[in-house]
Amino acid sequence: MDQIALTLLNGLSWGMTVFLTAAGLSLVFGILHVLNFSHGGFLMIGAYLSYTIGARLQAGSLWQFLLIALACSVAVGLLGALVERFVFRRLKRVSESYSLIATYALLILCQGIVKVIWGIDFLSVPPPSELGGAVTMGDFIAPSFVLFVIACGLVVFAIMDMVLQRTEVGKRVQSVAIDPWMAGLVGINVNAVLSWTVVCGFALAGLAGALLSVNQSLSPSMGSALIIQAFGALIVGGLGNIRGAFVASVLLGLITSFGDRFVPDVPGLFFFVALAAILLIRPQGLMRGLR
Amino acid sequence: MNPNSISTTRRADIPIFAALLLLFLSVPVWADPGLVFLAGVALVQIVFALSFNTIFGLAGMVSFGHAAYFASGAYAAGLMLKGSDPSLLQALAAGGLAGGAMACAIGTVALRRASGNYFAILTLALAELLHIVISKSTMLGREDGLTGIVRPRIDLFGLVTLDLTQGTTLFYLLLVLAALFGLGAWLMWHGSFGRVLAAIRQDPDRAAFLGINVHRVRLVAFSLSGMGAGLAGAMYAPLAQLLTPEVAHWSYSALPILFCLLGGTASYWGPVAGVLVFLGLEHATRNIVGLSEIVIGATLLFVVLAFPGGLAGGISRMARRRKSVVRQVATRNPAAMAASKEVDA
Description:
- The complex is a heterodimer.
- Chain A has a two-stranded antiparallel sheet with strand order 1-2.
- In chain A, α1 (about 1-30) packs antiparallel against α8.
- Chain A has a domain at about 25-220.
- Helix content of chain A is about 75%, strand content about 5%.
- Chain A is mainly alpha-helical.
- Chain A contains eleven helices and two strands, in the order ααααββααααααα.
- In chain B, about 75% of the residues lie in helices and about 0% in strands.
- In chain B, strands 1-2 form a two-stranded antiparallel sheet.
- Classes of the chains: A mainly alpha, B mainly alpha.
């Protein structure tokens, strides 16, 4: 029983890790219709920034950790503004596969920058003191940082969903995502919406990087490992659909976690088994038509 | 630029092919063994990129899992070359067949179900599966890689013995293979099958109305492309003599896409230019950690933003612009026209 609960917890934490990566990605895809490889790179930069700031300030408490995460989010959001201005804005003229490769070039660039600044060795961020222990529920022991990652995923999803579905800003973003031309006709400043959405997407990448530094070790390949799983979740959930991405992340996380219990020699195998199987059964993703 | 045009003319192809052959033939004369090895890698990657471009540039399918076919071919050839008396011919055949069979199997399920981004991610997922299986399989050397791959000796009809343990001999053999492959792929690209593929890229519905079995043609092209990738892998095995799961990783699937887009997909020679530029940059910046990525990333970004159409697209556009400038001048000044004709001659 405890084993099953632990597997469930691991699956949820894996799913939330993927969702935190996929959240900003989904936002940017919804608006630009480009699978943004560089999202993983900027997420990685967010994680490394939080490592450096945390080490400088000798931060130890959870509140400091969260404040640093917000600072990283703002910093990566600013980088996103630059990328939007100098790269994404020019990509409107070129075909889809060239846009894809431009974002891949940015990912390679991010990896190079990380290697130059922080080196190629694995680094790890010491978790805040509050997250070092474990929560006991009867016989069951849950590591605090796992619960923390799950909570972060839930909070980010709740806020994003509320903003997109319930506020005027969110409705503007949705209208631009669905039909930019029509949105322009009814008086929405389409370019401003595009720019700000990209900035928000990048800020989410920075936030996710900083938050995930509690359960990921930092290395120059961190970004590319996470981005592929996030692509999977996005595709399964239906592109550009936050709720779909959330459901798909959790589902894929749980399948992977339970699969790993049965085939412990090959961790992570079931993520791709599930991804391929779902795409073969429903080639357009789970949530098509449910938007 | 009209994306549907195949930009090099047949007349231009022969000098380009000859120049490339001469360039590679001369490498062992002026280069050190390290560079000869790199040139061998370039030949492998050229075969990989050309076979990828048949489905990408010509048939318009975005596969993100070509590393799977390259790795199948490489590991199949690697296993064949581990025995006591290995045969290179068998290893190459096994590699091509393994790549083709893998592509046929994946294509059969993936092409029927998905297209566009979904097809790309589906092929990626299936390739990642293979990557994980290879890196956990003891027979294939797990994460440490497959070692002990022998470079064989070949008896040519009892007349000459080629000793492939010599780096230069192996290089020339790879050159012959790559040239034969390049010729075959060129014939396919410009022959009737290539035209059918181009028609499908431009408009699958109309192609179907013309009586083309779109699904079957796509599957055949995909399998052939996988066979080419498998052959590239089989050429790589004796060259590297060590195969790690890296060759099945998704970033290896991104390589041929980079080559094709860097060089230009609409031209047959675009991917070759992409390979040469990419490997050249990587070689020039190899000594400083991280610099290689920064230079390659920045170059790619620059090419995509400045020449949407790749290097080959950029060159042909510049050539066309020069011609039109000459024509404009000529209408005003007949003397300039005569002068430009002399220059062209």
